[in-house]
Amino acid sequence: MSTATTLIDKMVDRWGRRLVIGTPYLYLILVFSIPFFVVLKLSVSTSNDGIRFEDLTTFNDWVFNLTASFQKYRFLLQDDLYLNTYGSSLKFATINTLICLFIGYPFAYFMARSPVSMRPVLLMLVSLPFWTSYLLRVYAWRGLLDDSGTVNSLLIWLGAIDEPIKMMHTAFSMTVGMVYTYLPFMILPLYANLVKMDGRLIEAANDLGAGPMRAFWLVTVPLSKNGIIAGSMLVFIPSVGEYVIPELLGGPETLMIGRVLWDEFFANNDWAMASAVAVTMVILILFPLALFNKYQTAAVGRGTA
Fold first, then answer.
1. Domain locations in the chain?
2. Is the pLDDT of residue 17 over 70?
3. Most buried by CB count within 10 Å: which residue of 1, 6, 56, 277?
C-alpha cells in the first residue's frame, strides 16, 4: 500500500508540475501565436479585392503545393511612406522611453527610500490613473492643450502670452500624452527593483570615501539595471504600435505605424498589406525583447552563482 501510494505521489508530483507549467504556455500559444500566424498567412497570401484570399496550400493529384507571395514585403522596402513611418514610430518610442526614465527614476527612488508607512500611498498615487478610462485620460489632454483649452486660457489670463500657443496636433502634444500614459509602467518596475536593494551597500560606499552622487552612479544605478531595462521595455514596446494617442493628439508630422495599420485595414481594405506591416513591426520589436531576455538571463545567472 505504501509503495503504491509513493508511486501515485510521484506521478502526481511529476505531472502536476508539468500541468502547472504547461497551462500558461498553452494559453500563450492559443492567444498569441495562433493569431500571429494568421496575420503572417495573410501577409503572404494573394487577393484580388484585399479581403478574400486564395489558399496558400493546395493538394491535387497527390501533389502538395505551397504558394506564397512576398510582394507586400518588397513594397514595404521600396515605399518611403512605410520606411518613414517605421522610423517615426521608433523615434517617438525612444523619446518617450527616455523621458519616462528621466522622470520615473527619481520618483521610484524617492518611493523606495520613503518610510514604509508612506509607500502604499505613493503606490496608489502612481496607479491612480488606471482607475480612469485610458481613452478619457487622452481626451482630457485635448481639453488642456487645445487652442482654447485650460493651459492657453491660464497663460493668457496671467499675461504670459497674447494669443494661444499651438500645442494640439503637434509632436509636443503627442509626446506629452505618451509620457503621461506610460510613465507608471516605468515607475513600478524601477520601484520593485530599488526597494529590494540593500541600503548597507550605500553605507559601505560612503565609508570608502564615495560621495552621494558617486555612490549613486557606482552602486545604485548598476544594481537597478534590471529595473531600468524592464521599465524601458514596458514603455518602448507598446509605444511603437500606439494608435489612440497619435490619432487624438498627434498631427500629420507624427505619423505612427498604428495609424498606418488602421488605414490599411479599414480605409484601404488591403488586409495583406496591413498584415505585412504588422508582421514587420513585430520583427522590429523582437530586437528589444531579445535584449531584455539577455539581461534577465544574465541576472538570473549571477543570482544563482
1. 76-304
2. yes
3. 277
CA–CA separation, 72 vs 264, rounded Å?
Answer: 12
Strand partners for 57: 66
Give the gyration radius of the chain's Cα atoms. Answer: 26
Between CA 229 and CA 85 the distance in angstroms is 25
The domain 76-304 is placed in CATH, from the list 1.10.940.10, 1.10.3720.10, 1.10.8.10, 3.40.570.10, at 1.10.3720.10
From the number of C-beta atoms within 10 Å of its C-beta (0-12, 13-18, 19+), residue 174 rates as buried
Separation of first and last alpha carbons in the chain: 42
- What letter would DSSP give residue 130? G
User: Can you tell me which residue has the cell 478610462?
Assistant: 133
Residues 203, 171: Cα–Cα separation, whole Å: 44
Burial 235-269 (b: 16+ CB within 10 A, else e): bbbbbbbbeebbebbbeeebbbbbbbbeebbeeee
Q: CB neighbours of 281 closer than 8 A, spacing ≥ 6?
A: 86, 89, 240, 241, 257, 261
DSSP state of 65: E
Q: Is the pLDDT of residue 159 over 80?
A: yes
Is residue 175 within 8 Å of 100, Cβ to Cβ? no
Outline where DSSP puts E strands in 72-144.
Answer: none
**C-alpha span between 46 and 56 (Å, rounded):** 8
Answer whether 0.85 is exceeded by the pTM. no
**CA–CA separation, 257 and 90 (whole Å):** 9
The set of cell numbers assigned to 285 is: 520589436
pLDDT tens, residue by residue, 243-274: 888 888 887 777 888 888 888 877 777 788 88
pLDDT, position 61: 62
